[in-house]
């Protein structure tokens, strides 16, 4: 019986020693902390689509005649754009609207009053085209139709990029790679080695004009007024570090 207890005690001692050694080994290779870094992805690109919005306006004393004039003026706008190289399928017209027009006047008693002054008819249109150069030039010349009695107003062009999602994906990858490279430099110069990624988060996209000092927005910015753009995004990453 005594021998049996001796074997139990000796065996337990071996097991305990193995556990202590294993714990010591694990402790020596255990992560000793983390490194938090921010990586940047940035690129410039040229917009490949232009969007221009405008409105044709007609004033009339007769609603039916005014609507006919509006229809004719919109057709003239379409013809003008086509003559400048813009395809008809790239021009879309919204539903026309008509409202009564009232004007103020001073009555015989010197009081301000309003009276019916006819109708105002409006019809908006949108031009979307990948032929940026031709469309830009044509839209700039559209107001020349006012010499023909056609009241047309055009907004500033908006420039889009149809491959933007691909650009965003590439930027996130570039920012993540930049973050890892920064973390490796810090770890190497700190006498440690870089471990696994603990957590990572991408920031908002900032799309600004390629030149200038346009400010960034906390919620992300999306420039539409510049044909040449710059996109950037940051990725904040946290890596575990280990003793060498």
Give me the CATH architecture of the largest domain, please. 2-Layer Sandwich
Report the major sheet.
6 strands, antiparallel
Number of strands: 11
Tally of separate helices: 4
Overall spatial form: elongated
CATH topology-level name of the largest domain: Alpha-Beta Plaits
Regions with pLDDT < 50 over 5+ consecutive residues? 1-28
Structural class label: alpha+beta
Mean pLDDT: 87
N-C termini distance: 49 Å
Summarize the structure.
35% of the residues lie in helices and 41% in strands.
Fold and architecture overview:
- This protein has 244 residues and is α+β, with helices and mostly antiparallel strands.
- The protein has two domains: 32-46 and 163-243, Protein of unknown function (DUF541), domain 1 (Translation Initiation Factor IF3), CATH 3.30.110.170; 50-159, 2-Layer Sandwich (Alpha-Beta Plaits), CATH 3.30.70.2970.
- 35% of the residues lie in helices and 41% in strands.
- It has four helices and eleven strands; from the N terminus they run αββαβββαββαββββ.
- Strands 2, 3, 4, 5, 6 and 7 form a six-stranded antiparallel beta sheet that branches.
- Strand 4 and strand 5 form a beta hairpin.
- The longest helix has 28 residues, at 2-29.
- The protein starts with a helix and ends with a strand.
């Amino acid at each position: 019986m005594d021998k049996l207890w001796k074997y139990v005690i000796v065996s337990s001692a071996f097991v305990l020693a193995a556990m202590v050694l294993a714990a010591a080994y694990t402790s020596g290779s255990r992560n000793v902390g983390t490194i938090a870094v921010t990586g940047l992805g940035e690129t410039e690109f040229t917009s490949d689509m232009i969007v221009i919005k405008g409105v044709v306006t007609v004033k009339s004393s007769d609603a039916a005649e005014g609507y006919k004039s509006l229809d004719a003026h919109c057709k003239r706008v379409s013809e003008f754009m086509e003559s400048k190289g813009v395809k008809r399928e790239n021009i879309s017209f919204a539903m026309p609207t008509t409202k009564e027009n009232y004007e103020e006047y001073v009555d015989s008693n010197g009081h301000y009053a309003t009276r019916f002054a006819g109708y105002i008819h409006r019809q908006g249109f949108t031009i979307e085209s990948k032929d940026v150069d031709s469309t830009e030039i044509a839209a700039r010349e559209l107001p020349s139709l006012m010499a023909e009695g056609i009241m047309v107003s055009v907004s500033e062009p908006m420039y889009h990029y149809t491959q933007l999602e691909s650009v965003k994906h590439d930027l996130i990858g570039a920012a993540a790679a930049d973050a890892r490279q920064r973390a490796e430099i810090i770890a190497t110069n700190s006498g440690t080695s870089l471990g696994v990624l603990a957590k990572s988060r991408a920031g908002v996209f900032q799309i600004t004009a390629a030149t200038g000092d346009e400010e960034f927005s906390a919620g992300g910015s999306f420039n539409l007024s510049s044909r040449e753009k710059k996109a950037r995004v940051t990725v904040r990453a946290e890596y575990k570090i280990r003793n060498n």
